[in-house]
């Protein structure tokens, strides 16, 4: 069985790592390159950088941060935020990213997924889905969680995989920053209709939350920010807890 992955997430704005709750009330956490290096040395499996205001403010994602990180960190890392074209993808991958994540751009032009997969390979294309419960279903939100597209998140997951997405990064907006546990129902529902690797994001507050999401859903990776940024949990301790629970991880 493939090892489950622990992935710290660095939300970046104006070249600094920030953290919020439910996508708002952002506070400064530190320098992205320094934080990425520290996580790498602690034994994380991958990293995700999200330039969380790039799409909203129509700015390009920070190429220089990516380049500096690639010189310090020797594990796969994904970059998202403000990536709207094949040229944007190429710039990030050339700067040192292993994968690119697209969200708003994929909704506005789904064919971008196919184009990216054909040019760079499916394994490089991560589709990020920001999902929020609306009534009895989940809707896809874009523009940094500001806009409800009305698109059903489960159906959207099926569509993006059919277009060539090699991985999904699914964030529960309801759980984001709350430390109240992952939205296991959301990941179970998506896992029933797709077979590509899926990263769960939003809600990690304690080690048991990570155990639960791996035991109760088919996700292949769990992403966390607050608990690692503020030193509440260490990656090594968390991995040991997962291993003790019978979940395959790289120690």
TrEMBL record:
Main location (coarse class): cytoplasm
SUPFAM superfamilies hit by this protein: Ribulose-phoshate binding barrel
One Pfam family from the record: His_biosynth
Protein name: Imidazole glycerol phosphate synthase subunit HisF
NCBIfam families referenced in this protein's UniProt entry, alphabetically: hisF
Protein task: IGPS catalyzes the conversion of PRFAR and glutamine to IGP, AICAR and glutamate. The HisF subunit catalyzes the cyclization activity that produces IGP and AICAR from PRFAR using the ammonia provided by the HisH subunit.
EC top class named in words: lyase
Database matches in Gene3D superfamilies: Aldolase class I
Pathway(s) this gene product operates in, as recorded in its UniProt entry: Amino-acid biosynthesis; L-histidine biosynthesis; L-histidine from 5-phospho-alpha-D-ribose 1-diphosphate: step 5/9
Compartments (UniProt record): Cytoplasm
Active site: 11, 130
Keywords: Amino-acid biosynthesis, Cytoplasm, Histidine biosynthesis, Lyase
EC numbers: 4.3.2.10
Family: Belongs to the HisA/HisF family.
Subunit organization: Heterodimer of HisH and HisF.
Reaction equations catalysed: 5-[(5-phospho-1-deoxy-D-ribulos-1-ylimino)methylamino]-1-(5-phospho-beta-D-ribosyl)imidazole-4-carboxamide + L-glutamine = D-erythro-1-(imidazol-4-yl)glycerol 3-phosphate + 5-amino-1-(5-phospho-beta-D-ribosyl)imidazole-4-carboxamide + L-glutamate + H(+)
InterPro entries: Aldolase_TIM, His_biosynth, HisF, IGPS_HisA/HisF, RibuloseP-bd_barrel
Organism: Enterococcus camelliae
Keyword Lyase included in the entry's annotation: yes
Keyword Lyase recorded: yes
Gene Ontology MF annotations: lyase activity
């Amino acid at each position: 069985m493939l090892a489950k992955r622990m992935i710290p997430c660095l939300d970046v704005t104006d070249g600094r790592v920030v953290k919020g709750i439910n996508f708002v009330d952002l506070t400064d956490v530190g320098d992205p390159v320094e934080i990425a290096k520290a996580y790498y040395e602690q034994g994380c499996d991958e990293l995700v950088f999200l330039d969380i205001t790039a799409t909203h403010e129509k700015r390009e994602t920070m190429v220089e941060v990516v380049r500096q990180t690639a010189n310090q960190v020797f594990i796969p890392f994904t970059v998202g935020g403000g990536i709207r074209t094949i040229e944007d993808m190429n710039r990030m991958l050339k700067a040192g990213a292993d994968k690119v994540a697209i969200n708003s751009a994929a909704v506005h032009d789904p064919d971008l997924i196919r184009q990216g997969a054909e040019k760079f390979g499916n394994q490089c294309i991560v589709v990020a889905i920001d999902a929020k419960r609306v009534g009895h279903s989940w809707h896809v939100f874009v523009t940094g969680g500001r806009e409800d597209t009305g698109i059903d998140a489960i159906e959207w997951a099926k569509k993006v995989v059919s277009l060539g997405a090699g991985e999904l990064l699914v964030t529960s907006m309801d759980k984001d920053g709350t430390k109240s546990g992952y939205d296991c129902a959301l990941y179970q529902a998506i896992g029933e209709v797709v077979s590509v690797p899926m990263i769960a994001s939003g809600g990690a507050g304690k080690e048991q939350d990570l155990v639960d999401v791996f035991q109760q859903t088919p996700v292949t990776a769990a992403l966390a920010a607050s608990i690692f940024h503020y030193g509440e949990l260490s990656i090594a301790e968390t991995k040991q807890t997962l291993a003790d629970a019978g979940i395959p991880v790289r120690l």
